Amino acid sequence: MARANAPALDAQSLPAKKRATIERLPAAPVRAPRRVPHAHTAKTAWRSRALNGALPWLLPLALLGLWYLGTERGWLSEQVLPPPAFVYQTLGDLITSGDLWLNASASLQRVLVGFLIGSSLGIGLGLAMGLSKTIEDYLLPTFNALVQIPVLGWMPFALLLFGIGEPLKYVLIAHAALVPVTLCTLQAFHEVPKRLLEVGRAYGFSQRQIVTDIVLPSAVAPIFTGLRLGFTKAWLSLVVVELLASSEGLGYLIAYGRQLFQLDLVMAAVVVVGTVGLLIDRGFEFIERRLNKGRTTTTRSLA
Amino acid sequence: MSTLTVARSSQGPRYRGWVVPIVGIAVWWLAASQGFSDSGLLVSPGKVAVTAWEQVSSGQFWRAISASLARDLSGFFIGTTLGLVLGCLLGFSRLFERLVGPSFNTFKQISLFAWIPLISVWFGLGDVAKVVFLSLAALVPVVVNTCDGLRSVSPALLEVAKVYGFTRWQTIVGVMLPAALPSIFTGIYLALVYSWLATIGAEYLLVSGEGIGNALIDGSEHFMMDLVLFGMIVIGLVGWALNVLARRLERRMQRLYGILPR
User: Fold this and answer.
1) How far is CA B97 from CA B103, B125, B147, B179, in A?
2) Of A52, A144, A270, the CB nearest to B114
3) Which end of chain B has the lower number of beta carbons within 10 A, N or C?
């Protein structure tokens, strides 16, 4: 195409005297590229795919460039926005000195213990309410009322009751995980496909058979969605709890950096928190997708 | 921190729901009046009621709650507006989605509260920092749900629009936006819920000025369990009221746009 367009362009820009000779050039090249459509489309397809793959990186790279320029040119002082290289270096220091490992393992341990306690209680509570209408009648209104108070609202209460030690973190993280797990489990029981239940009844299933063969299998995927949500909430509240009351952990690293006005440390810790959260979420999502193959969940709307 | 609830499924007698709370309060009352524990943390329900009355009559409560709500709503409006714009851009333009979508998805994974230290250094501890944080909290669900809603408009509807020769503008206004409305409402509803949570968080972590979260911290620092319990109840009630209000508005809007039968 480029070759075909070139003479036309020249013809316009050149003085009138020379135009006559140029106009006589054959127009054939216009069609030339069309003769080899196969090779050509394959090439553009590859190119557009490469471009498509590169597009998402443009914005982060532009921001990074702006950040770098801003600190390099001194638009912002280092205290307000440390240069990217500095943050990177701090991150490297954290890794080599083992501080990162120490704090990350403390955080992970807390979140795992809290999540395990909270989600097992949540599944238990959800199962109890899902299986027995009586229990649901007694407990659900109270549960719904207590759920209105967010984790942060419980915090001062728990602080007075449990002090500032490990139990406080476990209790708050467990509470954060418990709520979505319970709600999703209960929702799963409410949303068992009616048709399956009818089939079960038509085949004369006993109550017990209906529960073990129909209700529970169809509830597995929604319950898993609840677990994923629960973990997200647990991770979120871990950061809050550690920001407010702890002497180790990733949240503490953030709070510590803020107190010393070491924004490089804050940013490095935020990056770690984000990465760990992202990895765990992706892991859960992967398993969830496998469980969810070929079914639609309405529990998703609880997110 | 989800404040969404599951509705009751059975038609059992209503009184059953009241049994647990009433028994709980009775046990609490008994425990406090019999002096099972002398830790001073076991305050009686009566004391909490007295504190509540003092707070309300002295006007302290009204100052705190109005400061909190003003912050909550301004952050909510800013965040929702920005979220709608960003969500629409993401939903309508494939190019914009490729450009910004992955960055946004990574960004939303970062735990919201991890931004607080950075925000506090950049914007201080005052109302500006809190409103920025609140807008951030409200922005994310609106963007996600708006974009999702626009993306999942049924292809059949789009084909009809094409058959009738709709222009791009007509397709957007006449087909895509109405079809995406329920999802957009869900986003706004979630934004209202999240921004209330974030209000408490902001008052907690960016300590300055007045607000219901600050009242809670005061109570916790002075070992005043009655004040703490009163604050918790207020937070729960406000959250519940916002929840109900949002759901009402959602219903009304849906009726207005003919999504729900009257």
Assistant:
1) 10, 34, 9, 20
2) A270
3) C
Each of the 303 residues of chain A gets a pLDDT tens digit; together they read: 344 444 444 444 445 445 545 555 555 545 444 444 455 556 677 777 777 778 888 888 888 888 888 888 877 777 777 888 888 888 898 888 888 888 899 999 999 999 999 999 999 999 999 888 888 888 888 888 888 888 888 888 888 888 888 888 999 999 999 999 999 999 888 888 888 888 888 998 888 888 888 888 888 888 888 898 899 889 888 888 888 888 888 888 888 888 888 888 888 888 888 888 888 888 888 888 887 765 544 444 443
Kindly determine whether residue A274 and residue B217, on different chains, have CB atoms separated by under 8 Å. no
Record the tokens describing residue A42, joined without a space.
Answer: 């394959």
Asked if A243's CB is within 8 angstroms of B113's CB, the reply is yes
Q: Which residue has the tokens 């519940």?
A: B240
Looking at domain B46-256, its CATH architecture is Orthogonal Bundle (1.10)
Q: Exposed, middle or buried by CB within 10 Å (0-12, 13-18, 19+), for A203?
A: exposed
Residue A14: what residue type? L
Domain boundaries, given as residue ranges, for chain B: 46-256
Q: Do residue B8 and residue A56 have CB atoms under 8 angstroms apart?
A: no
Q: Tally the residues of chain A.
A: 303
Q: Among the residues of chain A, which ranges form H helices?
A: 2-13, 16-23, 37-72, 84-97, 99-131, 133-147, 151-162, 166-190, 194-202, 207-209, 216-244, 250-259, 263-292
Instruction: Catalogue all structural domains in chain A, each as residue range(s) with its CATH number.
Output: 2-82 (no CATH), 88-302 (1.10.3720.10)
pTM exceeds 0.90, yes or no = no
- Please name the amino acid found at residue B120: S
Q: Establish if B73 touches chain A: CB-CB under 8 angstroms.
A: no
User: Given the structure tokens 């993401």, which residue do they identify?
Assistant: B90
